[in-house]
Amino acid sequence: MQERVNLLKQALQDNTAAIGLWCSLSSALTTEIVAGAGADWLLIDSEHSPNDLRSIVAQLQVAAAFPCEAAVRVPSDDPVFIKQVMDGGARSLMVPNIRTADQARAVVAAMAYAPGGIRGFSVGHRANAFGRIANYHANARAQQLLAVQIECETGVANAAEIAAVPGVDVLFVGPGDLSTNMGAMGSPNAPHVQAAIASVLAATRAAGKAAGILAPQRADADRYLADGFTMVAVGSDLGLLARGSDQLVAQFRKG
Question: Where does the secretion signal sit in this chain (predicted)?
Fold first, then answer.
């Protein structure tokens, strides 16, 4: 048995835009619905959503029926949780608030088996189809993708060094946290925040890596894609449900 190809990693290496959707509702059923929409990738969030290891694995299971890549955002750079999520089948990870190259290197090490890393060894788990994928442990890195989030001024200043770390595939800007940390809460389009975002994009592309960003407004998404961002999230299950239900009820409340 062979591990299926990580189509998101392949697309980003080919400099092809990949459109994604955030999954924040911690439900395998809603993630299954979103996975059927045809997005290139999904992000199962465990930083700002009430997900735990079991709910993450359940969502990975339903997403596996579709050609989209299911990535998982872990709550932090904790190597223990990274190990558990990866054993549960996540091979594309997003790690929030990476500030330095040393921190990025530590995350890469948490994802890799010795001698290149510290990931704990288990003979059979969901990641290797319970022991059915031949030579999984020796080749696990080939289908892994690591997106590190740049969400503060320190991360922006160190973007070039972070992008140069082997094993880092994507620098993913978190515009909400970045704008908040730069004194412009709720205003990611403030000129100084946009300048910081542009500098991250330039540093990332200079290193030959992919740049990503969350852009739920269509005009923002179109602009970022035109600028050269390729891993772009354009909405979320939570947002679609909230706005859709708001709009539907509002149609019957007019007048």
Answer: none
Arch. (CATH architecture) of 7-253: Alpha-Beta Barrel (3.20)
pLDDT in tens, 160-169: 999 999 999 9
What integer pLDDT is reported at residue 255 of this predicted model? 59
From the list 48, 125, 137, 192, the catalytic residue is 48
Q: Where are the domains of the chain?
A: 7-253
**Calpha distance 43→21 (Å, rounded):** 6
* Pair type for strands 18-23 and 69-73: unpaired
Catalytic annotation present for 137: no
